[in-house]
C-alpha cells in the first residue's frame, strides 16, 4: 500500500469513529432488565465496530511515516483499544458469560469470524525489541554460568582396530543390500520374459495399432481434463489449496519487505522531528519568551487591581498544584476576568439570601425522601442495565477533534512528503514555552503580591490558596514494605534465575493456538442449551484479558483492572501454550511460582514472604511480567494429599493474595494460573485470588477440523483428496489438541514423510495412534462444568437461565388458560 492508501484508510476510520461517538451517549441511559437482549445486541454491535476500528488504526500507525500524525494515531490506537476492553467488560456483565455469542450480530452486520479476531498492535514488540533482546542476553549469560563443566558431553574413545571393523561391517551391509536389489530386478525381468513366451506374440495391423494408441491417448487426455476441472472447482469453493502458493508467498514477502523499509523511514523521520522540537523550543524561548513574560505580568497586575477595587482586598494567588495563574486566565481576556469577578460578588450576596430560604425547604424534602424510601422497600424495583462511564471516550474524542481541526482539511499533494509540519510544531512548542514561563512569572508575582499586601493593606501574610479536598477516607493504598531496600534489580534478577523462579519462555505466537468460531451459539441458546466456548473464544479472551493489557502502559491504565486469570480445562488443552504466547506477544518476563517448582526454595516462615516479595518487586520493575502458577489448585487444597505434604503447597497463599491487592492500574503484572483439577481446591479462596476464570472444554467439530488440517500442514504435508479430514474430526471427538498433536507426530515420521510421493496419507493411519491415547470422558468434563457453575459468574449465569425458563413457563401457562 502507498502513503495515499494509508491516508485514505485513516480518513475512513475517522468517519467510522464519528458514527461510533454518536452512538455512545444513548448507551449511558438506563435500560430495564426486560430489554436485556436488545441492550446486549447494541453492546455487541458497538464492540464489533470498535474492533474493526482498532484494526484500521493499528495498520495505519504501523505504516504511517509522518511523525506528528503518528503521535495522534498512537493516542487514538490506545484509546480505542481501551474502549474495546471496556465494552468486553460490559458484555460480560450484561450476558453473565465470559464468551457471549456474537454469531447473530456478525450475520446481521454481514461480517465474518475473521472480523472478530482481536488485532494485537505491532508496536508492542517493535518499541521494546531492544530491551527484550538485552534481557534475553542477560538471561542466557546467567544460565550459561549455571551449567557445570562436567555436564558437557564427554565422548568415549574407540581403538583404531574397532573403528575399522565397524566401518567394514557397515560397508558389507550396504553392498549386500545393493546386490539383493540388483538380483530382484533380474528375477523380475526373467519372469516377464517367461510370461511373454508362454502367451505368444499378439500381431496387430497398422490400423489396429493406431486405433489402440489413439484410444489410450484420448482416454488419458479426458481423465486429465476431468481431474483438472474437478480440482479447479474444489479450489473455487475453497476445498483445496491454491496451486499458486509460490507466487502468493513471493507477493507476501515483497509486501513485508516494503513494510520494513517504511519502518526504517519512520525512525529517520522521528529523529529529524526530535531535533526540530529542540530547535523550535529554543527559538521560541529566545524570540517570543520576553514578550510573553511581560504580557503575563501586566495581566496579573491588572487582576490584582480589579480584585482590590471590587472586594477591598487583594486576592489569594492560586497554588502551583491547581495550575497557578493559568487556572484564572485560561482562554480568557482581562475584560472577561473582570466580568467574572463582578458576577462572583453578586452571586455571593444572592447565596446568603437563598440559604435562609432553603433551610425550611430542606426539612420538607427530608420527610418526602423518607416516605419514598419506605415505599421502595415495600415495592419491588426492576433491575436496571446501564453502561459505566468510560475513561477512554474523552481521550478518543480529543484525538478526533485534533484530527478535524488540524489534519482533515489539509491539502496534500498526490505524493505527500513525510516531513513534519513546522507550523503545527511551533504552535505546540509555543504552548510549552508559555507554561514554562508562566511558572517563573507565578513565583515572581507571588512575591509581588506579598509586598503589595504589606505596603497597601498592611496585612499579615496569608497562606496560598490550595485546591479543596473532599472530606472522607484517605486516598491511596498502603505501600508495601520493601524487604530488600539495599539490593539492586540486577542482583535480584540473577537470584531468581539461579533459583529457577524466572525462566526463559519459548517463542509461541498466539495465532498458533488454532481453533474455529462457534457458529451455532445463538441457535443453541434458543434451543435452551448452554453453548460452550470454542478454542477461538478462548484465544480471543486471552488476547483481551492479558495481551492487550500487558502490551501498553496507557491501555493498562485506562482499561478495567484485571490482575489475575485462571485457565481451567483438561490436560492437553494448551494452557501452558497460552501462557507462553502471552509472554511472546508482549515481550514479558515469565516467573514460575508453581508449587512443584517451589520445593526446597526459600524455606522457613519468612522464606515464602521474601520469595513472593522479590518476585513481585522484580516483576514491577521489569514490566511487563507474567507470573505463572501451574496446578493452581494445590495452593488452595481442601485437604492436602500425603504425596504433596512435603512441598507445603499452601505456604504462599496469604502472601500471594496481599501482593496481588497492591497491584494498581499501570502495573503491567499479571498472575496466570492453570489447573485441570479445580474440584480439589477451596472455591472461595481460588475465586478470591483469580478475578477471571476461563473454562476450556474439549474442542468441537469445527475446531477439530481446523486442528487436524493446520497441524498436518505444519509438518510440511499438504492434505490431498485421499485424506478425509472430516472423518478424522468426527472420530477424534473427546480428544484434546494435545492428543491430536501426539497422533500426528507418531504417524508422520521421517520415513513416512519420504514415502508420501508413492503412498499418500490416509485417515486410517491415525486411528491406531488415537486408540492408544485416553480421551477426555464426558464424566470428567461434566465435573469441570459443575465446578465452573459454582463460581460467582457461573452462579449468576445459571440463576439468570433459571429465571428465564420460569418466565417462559409462566407465559405458556397463561396462554393455556386463555385458550381454555
TrEMBL record:
Record keyword Transferase present: no
Annotated Basic and acidic residues bias: 343-363, 371-380
Biased composition (Basic residues): 465-478
Domain ATPase AAA-type core: 565-686
GO molecular function: ATP binding; ATP hydrolysis activity
Annotated segments matching region Disordered: 343-380, 461-486
Keywords linked to the UniProt accession: ATP-binding, Nucleotide-binding
Top-level taxon in the UniProt lineage: Eukaryota
InterPro entries the record matches: ATPase_AAA_core, IQ_motif_EF-hand-BS, N-DRC_Component, P-loop_NTPase
Family statement drawn from the similarity comment of this UniProt entry: Belongs to the AAA ATPase family.
PANTHER family documented for this protein: IQ AND AAA DOMAIN-CONTAINING PROTEIN 1-LIKE, IQ MOTIF CONTAINING WITH AAA DOMAIN 1
Protein name listed in UniProt: IQ and AAA domain-containing protein 1-like
Lineage of producing organism: Eukaryota, Metazoa, Chordata, Craniata, Vertebrata
Gene name, Swiss-Prot/TrEMBL: IQCA1L
Amino acid at each position: 500500500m502507498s502513503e495515499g492508501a494509508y491516508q485514505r484508510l485513516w480518513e475512513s476510520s475517522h468517519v467510522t469513529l464519528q458514527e461510533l461517538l454518536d452512538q455512545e451517549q444513548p448507551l449511558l441511559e438506563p435500560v430495564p432488565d426486560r430489554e436485556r437482549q436488545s441492550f446486549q445486541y447494541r453492546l455487541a454491535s458497538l464492540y464489533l465496530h470498535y474492533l474493526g476500528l482498532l484494526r484500521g488504526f493499528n495498520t495505519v500507525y504501523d505504516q504511517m511515516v509522518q511523525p506528528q500524525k503518528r503521535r495522534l494515531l498512537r493516542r487514538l490506537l490506545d484509546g480505542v483499544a481501551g474502549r474495546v476492553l471496556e465494552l468486553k467488560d460490559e458484555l460480560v456483565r450484561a450476558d453473565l458469560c465470559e464468551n457471549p455469542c456474537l454469531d447473530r450480530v456478525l450475520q446481521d452486520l454481514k461480517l465474518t469470524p475473521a472480523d472478530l479476531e482481536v488485532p494485537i498492535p505491532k508496536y508492542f514488540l517493535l518499541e521494546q525489541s531492544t530491551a527484550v533482546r538485552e534481557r534475553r542476553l542477560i538471561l542466557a549469560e546467567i544460565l550459561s554460568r549455571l551449567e557445570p563443566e562436567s555436564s558437557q558431553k564427554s565422548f568415549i574413545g574407540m581403538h583404531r582396530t574397532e573403528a575399522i571393523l565397524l566401518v567394514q561391517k557397515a560397508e558389507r551391509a550396504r553392498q549386500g543390500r545393493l546386490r539383493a536389489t540388483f538380483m530382484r530386478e533380474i528375477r523380475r525381468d526373467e519372469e516377464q520374459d517367461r510370461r511373454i513366451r508362454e502367451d505368444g506374440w499378439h500381431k496387430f495391423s497398422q490400423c489396429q495399432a493406431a486405433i489402440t494408441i489413439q484410444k489410450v491417448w484420448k482416454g488419458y487426455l479426458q481423465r486429465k481434463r476431468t481431474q483438472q476441472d474437478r480440482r479447479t472447482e474444489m479450489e473455487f469453493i475453497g476445498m483445496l489449496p491454491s496451486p499458486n502458493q509460490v507466487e502468493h508467498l513471493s507477493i507476501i514477502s515483497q509486501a513485508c519487505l516494503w513494510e520494513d523499509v517504511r519502518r526504517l523511514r519512520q525512525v529517520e523521520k522521528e529523529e529529524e522531528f526530535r531535533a526540530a522540537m529542540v530547535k523550535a523550543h529554543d527559538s521560541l524561548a529566545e524570540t517570543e519568551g520576553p514578550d510573553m513574560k511581560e504580557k503575563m505580568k501586566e495581566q496579573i497586575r491588572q487582576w490584582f487591581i480589579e480584585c482590590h477595587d471590587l472586594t477591598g482586598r487583594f486576592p489569594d494567588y492560586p497554588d502551583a498544584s491547581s495550575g497557578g495563574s493559568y487556572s484564572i486566565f485560561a482562554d480568557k481576556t482581562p475584560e472577561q476576568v473582570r466580568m467574572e469577578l463582578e458576577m462572583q460578588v453578586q452571586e455571593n450576596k444572592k447565596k446568603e439570601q437563598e440559604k435562609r430560604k432553603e433551610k425550611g425547604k430542606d426539612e420538607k424534602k427530608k420527610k418526602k425522601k423518607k416516605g419514598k424510601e419506605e415505599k421502595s422497600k415495600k415495592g419491588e424495583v426492576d433491575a436496571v442495565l446501564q453502561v459505566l462511564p468510560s475513561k477512554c471516550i474523552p481521550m478518543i474524542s480529543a484525538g478526533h477533534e485534533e484530527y478535524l481541526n488540524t489534519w482533515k482539511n489539509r491539502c496534500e499533494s498526490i505524493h505527500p512528503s513525510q516531513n513534519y509540519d513546522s507550523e503545527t510544531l511551533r504552535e505546540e512548542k509555543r504552548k510549552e514555552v508559555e507554561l514554562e514561563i508562566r511558572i517563573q512569572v507565578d513565583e515572581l508575582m507571588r512575591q509581588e503580591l506579598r509586598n503589595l499586601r504589606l505596603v497597601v493593606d498592611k496585612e499579615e501574610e496569608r497562606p496560598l490558596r490550595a485546591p479543596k479536598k473532599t472530606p472522607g477516607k484517605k486516598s491511596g493504598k498502603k505501600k508495601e514494605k520493601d524487604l530488600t531496600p539495599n539490593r539492586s534489580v540486577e542482583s535480584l534478577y540473577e537470584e531468581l534465575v539461579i533459583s529457577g523462579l524466572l525462566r526463559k519462555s519459548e517463542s509461541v505466537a498466539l495465532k498458533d493456538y488454532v481453533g474455529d468460531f462457534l457458529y451455532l451459539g445463538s441457535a443453541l441458546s434458543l434451543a435452551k442449551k448452554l453453548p460452550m466456548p470454542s478454542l477461538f473464544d478462548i484465544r480471543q479472551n486471552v488476547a483481551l484479558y492479558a495481551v492487550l493489557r500487558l502490551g501498553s502502559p496507557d491501555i493498562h491504565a485506562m482499561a478495567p483492572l484485571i490482575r489475575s486469570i485462571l485457565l481451567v480445562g483438561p490436560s492437553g488443552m494448551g494452557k501452558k501454550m497460552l501462557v507462553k504466547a502471552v509472554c511472546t506477544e508482549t515481550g514479558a518476563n515469565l516467573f514460575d511460582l508453581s508449587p512443584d517448582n517451589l520445593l526446597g526454595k526459600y524455606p522457613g516462615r519468612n522464606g515464602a514472604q521474601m520469595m513472593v516479595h522479590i518476585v513481585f518487586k522484580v516483576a514491577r520493575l521489569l514490566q511487563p511480567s507474567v507470573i505463572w502458577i501451574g496446578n493452581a489448585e494445590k495452593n488452595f487444597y481442601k485437604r492436602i494429599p500425603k504425596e504433596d505434604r512435603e512441598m507445603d503447597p499452601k505456604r504462599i497463599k496469604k502472601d500471594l493474595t496481599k501482593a496481588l491487592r497492591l497491584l494498581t492500574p499501570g502495573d503491567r503484572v499479571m498472575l496466570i494460573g492453570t489447573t485441570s483439577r479445580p474440584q480439589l481446591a477451596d472455591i472461595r479462596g481460588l475465586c478470591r485470588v483469580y478475578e477471571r476464570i476461563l473454562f476450556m472444554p474439549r474442542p468441537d467439530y469445527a475446531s477439530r477440523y481446523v486442528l487436524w488440517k493446520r497441524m498436518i500442514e505444519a509438518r510440511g504435508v499438504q492434505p490431498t483428496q485421499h485424506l478425509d479430514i472430516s472423518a478424522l474430526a468426527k472420530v477424534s471427538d473427546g480428544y484434546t489438541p494435545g492428543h491430536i498433536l501426539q497422533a500426528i507426530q507418531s504417524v508422520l515420521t521421517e520415513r513416512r514423510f519420504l514415502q508420501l510421493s508413492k503412498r499418500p496419507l490416509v485417515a486410517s493411519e491415525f486411528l491406531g495412534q488415537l486408540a492408544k491415547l485416553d480421551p477426555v470422558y464426558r464424566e470428567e468434563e461434566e465435573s469441570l462444568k459443575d465446578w465452573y457453575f459454582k463460581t460467582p459468574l457461573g452462579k449468576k449465569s445459571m440463576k439468570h437461565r433459571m429465571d428465564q425458563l420460569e418466565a417462559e413457563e409462566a407465559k405458556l401457562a397463561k396462554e393455556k388458560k386463555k385458550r381454555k
